[in-house]
Amino acid sequence: MVYKQLDIAIDDFDYNLPQERIASFPLKKRDEAKLLVLDKDRIYDIPFYEFPNEINKDSLLIFNDTKVIFARLFFNKPSGAQIEIFCLEPFEIKDIQIAFAQRKSVLWKCFIGNNRKWKEGQLVKTAQYKGETISLKAEKVKPEEDSWIVRFSWNGNHPFCEILSIMGIIPLPPYLNRKAESEDNIDYQTIYANLEGSVAAPTAGLHFTKKTFSDLKQRGIKTDFITLHVGAGTFKPVTTQSIKDHSMHAEQILITKSVIEDLISYIDKNIICIGTTSVRSIESLYWYGVSILENKDIPLDIDILQWQPYQKECSIPAKDALNAILERMNRGNINYISGKTQIIIAPSYTFRIVSGLVTNFHQPKSTLLLLVSALIGDKWKDCYNYALENKFRFLSFGDACYFTKG
């Protein structure tokens, strides 16, 4: 049973985005991007480097430290046909870091471009690396929904993450309509990227520099890091008329005990997420804590389903939900929890933990825009109109917004 409020027409979240307003490349200095600020009914903009002075000192900032992998692999058949294999996520191995550590072969869920030209047999790609010739082989195993399971195998004693960095290309968003360049290997990563696993960057974090973090620290503002590995589903358009018929993608998350302790300390203050991925991760924690309170013997792995927050009324305080997770971790003597979340945050959602959001400008009729609307209501239209009228740059390499709940 899903609340009636989720019968939301996606056409209500459309707007005209001219191609020339999409930023094809980032600014040379990340923190010189514009930051749109919504202060109740007032909209204004400042340079991003002034963000540390814009927020309350009594704030906790949550960043997603995932790292984009070189997920696009191009193979050439003897016939001359080019096949693209886009690595999405490991198959069978739940822990993505364990999958990346495999040194001989691994199964991976992939999109295949020009699939009709690859009916059978192995594809082979070679590269020189530190005086060694590395040969990477790809073999189709079976279809899986709208993708394929591919078996990769290679010579040498190299982990799969290293093979991808040698053979692969960074996966820029398709709406940029350009090929990846060598500069993108740095530009399309946050400066704090740590754990490999994403096929798209948590782009709100691209604006942060070492100086930004230094300024935050100087003001006494607390920063924490969680991990959500962004999947290709982040670019999946909503093709249904109503959001209730849309199938949300699931993504892997990892959150440490110290982050949960900090969330409890700041729950009555300001918890600001950098990016929609951080929002989905932190709000998923609440529903995981609720599940523990309802059933103390549920598995340790997080598993939040798309409509879980909308299935029934819930008045459990956020602090109680977080304390339930902490107690469970203490009982199990574990320092982090992991799993997956499919949560969709759309208008009518009640935010339980997050009070503020820094994010980029999103595509029309996207689930990311729905999340923004859930936080600030129809004011998103005023903000986007302001940005369009004032020549803001849109999407992944574009400018940013700072919104607070209410």
List descriptors:
six-stranded antiparallel sheet, alpha/beta, single chain, 2 domains, QueA-like, 406 residues, ten-stranded mixed sheet
Layout: helices, strands, pairs:
Layout: E1 34-39, E2 42-47, H1 51-54, E3 59-64, E4 66-68, E5 72-76, E6 82-90, H2 96-100, E7 105-113, E8 123-129, E9 132-144, E10 147-154, H3 160-167, H4 184-187, E11 195-198, H5 210-218, E12 222-229, E13 251-256, H6 257-266, E14 270-274, H7 276-294, E15 302-304, H8 318-332, E16 336-341, E17 356-360, H9 367-376, H10 379-389, E18 400-404
Parallel strand pairs: 1-18, 3-12, 3-14, 4-11, 14-17, 15-16
Antiparallel strand pairs: 1-2, 5-6, 6-7, 7-10, 8-9, 9-10, 12-13, 13-16, 17-18
Helix pairs in contact: 6-8, 7-8
Describe this structure in words.
- This protein is of the alpha/beta class and 406 residues long.
- The protein is 23% helix and 28% strand.
- The strands form 3 sheets. Strands 2-1-18-17-14-3-12-13-16-15 form a 10-stranded mixed sheet, with helices on one face. It has a 6-stranded antiparallel sheet with strand order 5-6-7-10-9-8. A two-stranded parallel ribbon has the order 4-11.
- Strand 1 (34-39) and strand 2 (42-47) form a beta hairpin.
- Helix 6 packs antiparallel against helix 8 (318-332) and helix 7 crosses helix 8 (318-332).
- The longest helix has 19 residues, at 276-294.
